[in-house]
Amino acid sequence: MTDSRRYFDDIAVGEAYDSPGRTVTEADIVIFAGLSGDYNILHTDAEFMKSSIFGERIAHGLLGLAIQSGLFTRAGIPYATLGLGTLRWKFKGPIKIGDTIRVRARVTAKEEGSKRDRGVVTVERQVLNQRDEVVQEGETDLIVERRPAG
Amino acid sequence: MTLTEAHVGLYSGLSQDFPTEAGLVPELLPLCLTTGLGWRIPHPPLAVLAFMGFEWEVLQPVRVGDTIHSIARIAVKRSMREGGVIVEGREVINQRGEIVHRGRFTYLVAKRPKP
Questions:
Q1: ipTM for this prediction
Q2: What is the CATH number of the domain that holds B19?
Q3: Is residue A1 part of a domain?
Q4: pLDDT grade, residue A9 (50/70/90)?
Q5: What is the DSSP-derived secondary structure letter of residue A9?
Q6: B-chain residues near A144 (CB < 8 A)
């Protein structure tokens, strides 16, 4: 079986990726509220939100994070990721129903760790909407497998 | 909250974010669940105007069948003219008492409206 995943050794600092777009729907917000148990009125009460600064319901910030995580795996050949080490994230603007988001990512650092079979790849990401506004951004330190010897 | 295949299926279907290994839970899922767990505590919830951002650290894998709960502590409080910033430290703990994930959430919180 061929393994086309990219190992730590294959990834270069400076590589950049653009993901496909994903339109966020009312259903996504409803399912995420049910799954997480976060029923904050920002996401669930359309009448209340009419008089808010957003004018309508907005998506949970973490829903945007979850969607961008999936989009990242569709932005190029996937990494041989062992896990997510750490992440630092900012919510810059709302995601509204009907917005289409995509992620733009760039490898900014690579670090070998103490374990020989893995390394850390730092990826800087921006989540953009259809108006090219940055709605979320941050950095993830991904733990990626090293190519096995032999 | 006990994590089930249904949680993983729903989350992965929604996000297209899958666990790295069978039997594990996608790493962002416990983070997503802590936001809901926070509503089930006896304290009144924070009057959050905006969730500004956060930092998060994955310490140990979480498996289907694990039961997690979270502990939140207010770490920093900074007043501004309109509202203030609150930084809350969070830990996600499994049924063995191990801290599996932890981080800090930064919120913009409303001030009590003047009468």
A1: 0.89
A2: 3.10.129.10
A3: no
A4: very high
A5: G
A6: none
